[in-house]
Structures are given as C-alpha cells and as structure tokens.
Amino acid sequence: MEPTTGDLTDPLINHADGQLFLHEAFKIIVEEVLCKGTDVKEKVCEWREPEELARLLDLELREKGEPQENLLQRVRDVAKYSIKTSHPRFFNQQFAGVDYHSLAGRFLSEALNTNLFTYEVAPVFVLMEAEVLRGLRALVGWTEGDGLFCPGGSTSNMYAMNLARYRLYPEVKSQGLRSLPQLTVFTSPESHYSVKKGAAFMGFGMDNVILVKVDDGGRMIPEDLDEKIELSKSQGAVPFLVSCTSGTTVQGAFDPLDLIADVCDKHKLWLHVDAAWGGSVLFSKKHSHLMKGVHRANSVAWNPHKMLVAGLQCSVLLLKDTTDLLKKCHCANATYLFQQDKFYDVNLDIGDKSVQCSRKVDCLKLWLMWKAVGSAGLEQRVDKAFLHARYVVDQMKKREGFQLLGDPQFVNVCFWFIPPSLRGKEKNADYQNKLAKVAPVIKERMMKQGTMMVGYQPLGDRVNFFRITILSPLVSQKDMDFFLDEIERLGNDL
Amino acid sequence: INPEKGSPGAAEDMEAAESFIQQAMEIILQEAVKKATNVKEKVCEWRSPEQLKELLDLELKDTGESESKILQCCRDAIRYSVKTGHPRFFNQLFAGMEPHSMVASFIIEAIKTSQYTYEMAPVFTLIEDVLLKTMMKLIGWEEGGDGLFNPGGSMSNMYAVNLARYRYCPDFKEIGIYASPRLVMLTSQECHYSIAKAAALLGFGTKNVYVVPSDNRGKMIPSALCTHVSLQGAVPFFVNATAGTTVLGAFDPIDEIANICEKHNLWLHVDACWGGGALVSKKHKHLLKGIQRVNSVAWNLHKMLMATLQCSAFLVRDKSCLLQRCHCAGASYLFQQDKFYDVSYDTGDKSVQCSRKPDAFKFWLVWKAVGTRELEYRVDRALALARYLAQEIKKREGFRLVIEPEFANVCFWYIPPSLRNLPESPELWKKLHTVAPVVKERMMKKGSMMIGYQKHGDKPNFFRMVVISPQVSKQDLDFVLDEIHRLGKDL
C-alpha cells in the first residue's frame, strides 16, 4: 500500500505499544536469563541439535508480523536455548559471571543507542571514555597517553600492529606495503591467533609472523626472541613489532615483560602487550607482579569483559604515545562528520582515531561498575579468582585421575582426566590416542545433560586436555567441588 | 577474603541484584525511552565539556559508591546524552526507536555470549544464518552465498577488499603484499571514507585508491570508470559502488558498473550500508538495479531499517567457503575438529574478530514482529516524507535544494533574508558558508532539534536532512524548516 500524503500526518509507530512490549519482555529477561541463568539448580545449557533447534525456533522471516504474545514467547525460547554464561558452572571461555552494575550500564548503552564518533552526538560518553582510559593507563603506570575502545581484543592487537608500522614508515598509509622491505612480527606460539589474522588482514602475511620459543610453562624465551630478531634482520627483513602476551589463552602464561622490553629497546622495536586476558591482574596489588615491566611497552590490549566481568564487548587499546599517533595513523578527515568549523573544541571528536565509523559505547558498562565497586572491589574480584584456582589445583593433586599440565601461573587450570581404565597404562602404545578421546566425550555428556560447561583442546604434542578458567564472582568452593565430582561422574566409565 | 562470599556488586543475593536492576530499568524506560522519544522534550541538553565533566563526576576511585548514587549516575548519563530516538533527531544516518530491536538488544546483553561457535551461541548462530539468507533473496542471489555480521559497515567494506585480494592471489594471506604488482581499488568520489581507511589498514595505501568522478547527481560515471580501469602500471582488482552515498544519498548505476567489472574480471562490491534498505521496497528497489550481479554487499540494518547499533551485514556471492579460507587461522582451542556436533556451524573462523556480538538477532526479532510488508511501508513512507520535505523547501523563500533527492537525504541551504538579494558570487558563498554552523549551534543549545551540515566539493555548508523514523510526520518536517528560519533569520 503506497503511503499517501495524508498518511504522513500521523506517526506510524505507536510508542505506547512499544513501551509495553519492552516492559513485558524485560520481566521475562529478568526471570529467565538473570534469575534462572544464575541458579545452580537450573541447567547451564539446554542442548539441541541444529536441525531440531531450527524447527523449535521457527526462524523463517515472513511478509506479516506477529502479535505481542508470540513475540514474548520467542523471547522465552531464545532465553531457554541459549547458554547461561552467567551460571556458576559455566567455565568454558574467558568470560563468565555477571555484574549487575555493568549490566545496567549495558542496558543503558543500548537504550541510548548512539555512536562514539563526535562530541555532538555522544557528549557524555566521549568524556567518560577518556576518563576510563586514563584510569586504566594509570594502572599500567602511564600518567599520559592515548587509546580507545575497540570491538574486541583482536582489533586492539591489529591497531597496535598498524601503529607500529606507521611509526616506522609513515608513508605506508598512502603508499602501502609493496614498496617497503618485508616487515616481521614476533610472537609466541601460545599467543592469541589474532596476531596471525591481523598480519594477514593488514597485508604482512602470516608467514612474516615469526614464532619465538616458549618454556615449559608457555612463557616466551627472551634469548630466543633476540636470536630470531637477529636472524630476521640477517635475511633482509625489518623486524618492527613484538606482540607478547600477558595471560595466554590456553595455559594463562605471562611472558616476562621486563626482559622482553630489554630486547625491544635494544632493537628499537615496538613492544605490544596483549593483556586481553591477563590485564586485570593490574588491579591486584598481590598479583600485578605478573606484568612487571608493562609500563615499558608501547601499547597494551586489555579486555575488561573477561576477568572484570564487564560484559561483551569491553576491549581497550592503551597507548603510551602522546604525539597523536593514533589519530594521524587512522584519520581520513571526512568533512561530513569532522567539520572544522563546529562551535565546540573539535579535538573532542575522537572518531578519526578509529578505523570504524560508527563505534559502540562500550565504556559505560565498565565505568558504572567501577564507580559502584571501586578499584578495591575489582581487586577483590581478581584475588578471589586466584584463590579459587589455587583451591582447584590443590584438590586435583589430592584426587586420583586428575593430572595437571603444570603449576598454573594464573586462573587457567589445565588438566587431563584419566579414567580408571587408563590409569597406570601410560606406557601403552595407544595411551595418547585413548586419552585424546576422553575429553570430547565428557564434554558431550556435560552439554547434553546441561550440568556445566568446560573447554578442552590439544596443545602442541599434548593431546586433548580440559581448561577450566575460573573468574566469575558468583562462583564458590561448592561449585569447584561439584566441578571435580562431575568430571569424575561423567568420565569414570570411559 | 572469604572465597565463600560473593564479591560486591556481583550479588549472590539475587533479591538485591534484582531490585537494583529493576530500579535501573525503571529509570531507563522512563528517561531513556519514554521521555527520549517525546516530541515535547528536548533532543539534547547541551553542556560544554568543562561543565559536563563537573556535572558527571567521572572520577574513578578506590572505593565504591552507594546504590542511590549509581542510579543517579544513570539518570545523569541519560539527561546529558543526545536523544537519538527523538522525532527531531536528524543528525546521522540512524534515528528513531524500534522497540523490538531494543528488546533484542537487552536480551543480547543479558545472555552475554559470543558468536564464534555453535556450542556458545546455538540460537544466535541459526538466526544469523536465516537472516543472511533472507537478505540474499532480496538481493537476488538465487543460489545463495555466505556472510556474517560485523562491528560496522567500515569493517564490512574492509572484508570485501580482503576477499577480493585473496581471490586475486590467495598467496597474499601467507606471504603478504610485498613486491606484488601495484593493486588498485576503484571507487567514486562520493563514497564512504572507510574505503580509504581500508586501503591504509590492509596495506594497499590510500594512493592506490583511484577515485572515479561522479556526475552532478552524485552518481559514479561508468565511462570514467572504464578509463581508470585501463590505466597503465597498475592492476585494478576491486571496484566499490555505493548504493546511497553518505551526503547526497545517491545511487551508483550498478548494472553499468557490473558490465565493466565483468569484462575486466574485477571484484564488484556494493556499499549499500545506507541504501540497502530500499531493497525491501518494491517501489524503490530499482535504485539498486543490478545488485544481483555483484560479488559482495555491505548493508547496515541499523540505518534505514532502525535496528539498534550495531547491525551491519556483510554478504558475499560465494559458495566455496571463500570467507572461511581467507580469514581462518584454525585455532585449536576454539575450533576443535572432534566436537560432537557438526562443526560447520562454528562460524568464528569466517571473521577476523574472535569474540563477536550476536547482532543479527537485533533485526531478526524486528522482522518477526512486523513482517516484510511493514518494513516496506516504513521505507516507502520515509521516502515519501523526504519528497514532501523537498517540495516544501521549493515553496519556501530562503530555502534552496542542493539537488532533487533520490533517497532519504534532503540537502539544502538556508539563505537568511540579509543574503537573499545578493548576486550569485563567491562572496555570497563565503557568507552562506557561515550560516549553517551558527544555526546548528543555536539549535543544539536550545535542544529543539539536530540536523547535520557539511561542505561538499566546492559547495558551501548546507544542511543534510535525513528522514528515517516512522515516528516522524509532516509536522516535524514543517517544524524543521520553521525552526531553521527562526534560528537563522537574523544572520
């Protein structure tokens, strides 16, 4: 039906209906996701095969709409079949739990629905982002600097690479890489895969990410870094960045930053610290030593949506630079957005620091939470996670069938569960093969029963082992005990 | 520390937590939704940065604050934020408030998961797939294709460039683009700046973006594209056509451009971030005629179709897993091959992101709620309103259209009485250039509305009205013109 001019007199959307729907839907969200989702008596997940789930959800998009009752049922269904990542027995990823202040901040960010490119369209959040970045930089040990929030740690790591490249060869922005010598990046095999993805995306090529040896605990060996840099130079390449990790994904290892900084200083390389996972130790007086030397880095990636429970996404890139490098590297000066004749100080229009145009407000969730609990509250959260991890490790040492990979430095506890049938059979030829099959079966069982979620993976020549990451403030010793009992229960017959 | 107790703010006490969230939600619904969409309220509560810093008490301290203080922080954040859902917010290419999308957003925040694997996001994985397939049908890809949702259209455009490069030479993924032929990207002068940012970030260099001139309606000139394609010393591999340019809302002639791209075997990407919404309208989809022939499309559902930010789709006409092959790193801690379900449902390695928000749900719920016909009606209505505005501008003294609108962008000058009888000259343009910034300042300080302005090419500052929201009606547009005159007549 073609709208006639007469139809243009009245608004089309009935806001009263919309607000009622919001109100009703919110009740369901609280009940189904927040209450049930954090209740140990409820399941962590309601497993369904993809085809079955597709049928249950009735996904098809049609010509006509649906009445509100249908939509509210859909809200219930989405909640029911989604993973309860705030559940005390969800240990699958490097995020978990829920903080209600950050949740309020997240709901508010969605409701206000704005972009962080200019002061005129996001005045509160431009100022707030600056304040949060300042607070995080202070923990790194920098009284000045730059930075911004990125859509994920992978992007933060990419930005660091881009900045390092631009600092070394500013002409690369206009001329590109093809006329430059081959640039090489150094990282450990335990680092996050975004270093490689970034290298491919940005034109360096994955082969030019040189892997540096790690020790038994998964930490980068500075002597090998130095050697590899020398080797690369001797081959005619130009090393320009070291991306080391504070809190590796699987083992939770912390590369020795001070020693690595020595190597970077010697060769004049940009030092980037991917602290997406481990950065939050900087809140803890007891554990910040794990990142000793971080102030010597040029850039730090840190994801508060991980250990600080800020909620996805909350990822920052922090820079030591005070020469506006970020903006110079990324700007395009679009005249429709960054007019120079605005009536306020246009330095507040931070959009050109980003490669994004529209950029979500991710700072409010962290700011509100930080305001509510204070740095001391966040410190407690971090310290508590370490205590839980220590407890689990101690318990595993006492229980038969649990074999730790090593002594964890952080809150990742990696272990094999060895079912009774395999115990004492390490010397058998097919031991490794059989062991590799244990974790996937236990994982399948736990998900189908919905009792908990824990990740597993191989690493190097080590076959499938579990990785439990303990960070949720909702978790208690009972949950740790349950976890150990449940692994046994699910795997004893294998 | 007693490991038995919950940390502050992460209440084990469900009642206290629930009470806090209920109160916060009340404030949000009252202040950020109800009041914020009420035409009787202000669009913005302008404060200078120094004033605002003081008002907000931003400092982060060692100790926490009381619950009532936190709720006050929420109120303050709302008060001084711009009400982008207000019927008189026309500043950007997004506007209005879609309650179904907002509910979807709240669900996403509460569920708080990442879309990298089926095990972590079973519901959202299936929803993203269905939405992308439905969008592909609208584009006209009978055999389907591939795609995913990105953190913004800029990223979608970058993906297109990366895929085009990978198709040209898959080796670049491993060896990089050193010592390669000089690859160049082609785009129009009216395109979005993310194309330039893509060239810089992906290692091509902004110099290697060749800009094809547009005609006086803002559309790429195909014959000029032809010329650029044949230039010596460079290897064109990618053409970006824009469906709905940022300022003028112009649509490049996709069919003709596709002819050239097919002939020269160039990847054709259409940045339909803004104009993609026309595809739901039988009356207006001709603006993207030929789009079924292209290799990739970027389409932001958070613009004309009013999903909450961000909701940006990237679609590629490919069934050979190009997206996966181009981006994958095969991380064994996330994409184990021995999972107990079909791992082709794990979409994470199609992305350069690791954690990825389930943005598709924000629009899927809208579509379910209102249906295709209503979406079409909304688009048709927005464009009818744009035409109405253009007609009114032509009738009113002191208002002059920049060009006849093709889409929802209505660009015009306001010429205050003091300048109306001056001859057309560079002197007039110079004076006219100073008008919009002052009117903008006044409207923001008054809080009555928000409209963007910009210079463009050699044209002095003009206003760009963008009509999107179904909450907007003729009265609001009449108001805009009246208000501009009210604010600027003394200049």
UniProtKB/TrEMBL annotation, chain A:
Single GO cellular component term: cytoplasm
GO biological process: carboxylic acid metabolic process; heart development; taurine biosynthetic process
Family annotation (PROSITE patterns): DDC_GAD_HDC_YDC
Keyword Transferase attached: no
Cofactor: pyridoxal 5'-phosphate
PANTHER family: CYSTEINE SULFINIC ACID DECARBOXYLASE, GLUTAMATE DECARBOXYLASE-RELATED
Family the UniProt entry places it in: Belongs to the group II decarboxylase family.
Subunit: Homodimer.
Protein name: Cysteine sulfinic acid decarboxylase
Organism annotation: Poecilia formosa
TrEMBL record, chain B:
Keyword vocabulary terms for this entry: Decarboxylase, Lyase, Pyridoxal phosphate
Molecular functions per Gene Ontology: carboxy-lyase activity; pyridoxal phosphate binding
A Pfam family the protein falls into: Pyridoxal_deC
GO CC terms of this entry: cytoplasm
Example GO BP: carboxylic acid metabolic process
Required cofactor names: pyridoxal 5'-phosphate
Post-translational modification N6-(pyridoxal phosphate)lysine, affected residues: K303
Matches recorded under CDD domains: DOPA_deC_like
Presence of keyword Methyltransferase: no
InterPro entries: PyrdxlP-dep_de-COase, PyrdxlP-dep_Trfase, PyrdxlP-dep_Trfase_major, Pyridoxal-P_BS
Residues making up the signal peptide according to the UniProt record: none
PANTHER family reported in the protein's UniProt record: ACIDIC AMINO ACID DECARBOXYLASE GADL1 (PTHR45677:SF1), GLUTAMATE DECARBOXYLASE-RELATED (PTHR45677)
Oligomeric form and interacting partners: Homodimer.
Family membership: Belongs to the group II decarboxylase family.
Protein name: Glutamate decarboxylase like 1
Organism: Poecilia formosa (Amazon molly)
Lineage, top ranks: Eukaryota, Metazoa, Chordata, Craniata, Vertebrata
